[in-house]
Design goal:
The protein has 191 residues and is α+β, with helices and mostly antiparallel strands. Helices cover 54% and strands 8% of the residues. The protein has a 4-stranded mixed β-sheet with strand order 3-2-1-4. The longest helix has 27 residues. The chain is elongated.
């Protein structure tokens, strides 16, 4: 784990007048995409104006959000943005940052709990097992409708060779027997 993410001092990023960002930890120039990636990876950073030393982290994070909203799939609905803008100058403005931060923390905690519950109850390969079961059921169903095709069917008791149908009543009975066999196979796969 990166030491900045482990609770050490944040990585200092300097922004120069030419709009370039300089990572003082890695001694390299970076982009807003790099800062976005650092944020997603939980790496704490602070952006300082190189000339004045002023902390401009808030403005840079807002710029990252604006670029994400402009170039990708939009996450912030228009109604939310309007309500947020309406809060500026409102007597409740000072409470909004704390409220939004607590709401986002709760959302992320709930998301993490759901993921943990899914993993512990279903196992890490739950989706692979589900896909395998669905494919086996599909093969069994398809095999029941294709004469002479037993692909994907569970081994069953040997069946007598089908007798030639002499009458339409015999054909109906044969179809009923095939449907019963297919239902049995599906029931076995569903267990």
């Amino acid at each position: 784990m990166d030491e900045a993410a482990a609770g050490a001092e944040p990585v200092i990023i300097k922004k120069y007048a030419n709009r370039r960002l300089y990572n003082t930890q890695s001694s390299s120039y970076i982009t807003l995409d790099d800062l976005s990636r650092m944020t997603r990876n939980g790496i704490d950073f602070q952006v300082l104006d190189a000339k004045t030393g002023a902390d401009i982290t808030h403005a840079i994070l807002t710029q990252i959000i604006m670029e994400e909203e402009a170039s990708g799939e939009q996450m912030l609905p228009i109604s939310f943005l309007r309500q947020l803008i309406a809060m500026y100058g409102n007597s409740m403005q000072s409470l909004m940052p704390h409220y939004l931060e607590a709401t986002m923390d709760n959302f992320r905690n709930n998301q993490r709990k759901i993921q943990e519950t899914w993993t512990t109850s279903m196992g890490p390969d739950a989706l692979a097992k589900l896909a395998e079961s669905n494919m086996a059921m599909f093969k069994a169903a398809a095999g029941a409708f294709i004469p002479g095709n037993n692909a994907g069917a569970a081994p069953a008791q040997p069946q007598a060779a089908p007798k030639p149908a002499a009458t339409s009543g015999d054909e109906l009975e044969a179809l009923k027997a095939q449907m019963a066999a297919m239902q049995k196979k599906l029931d076995e796969l569903g267990k």
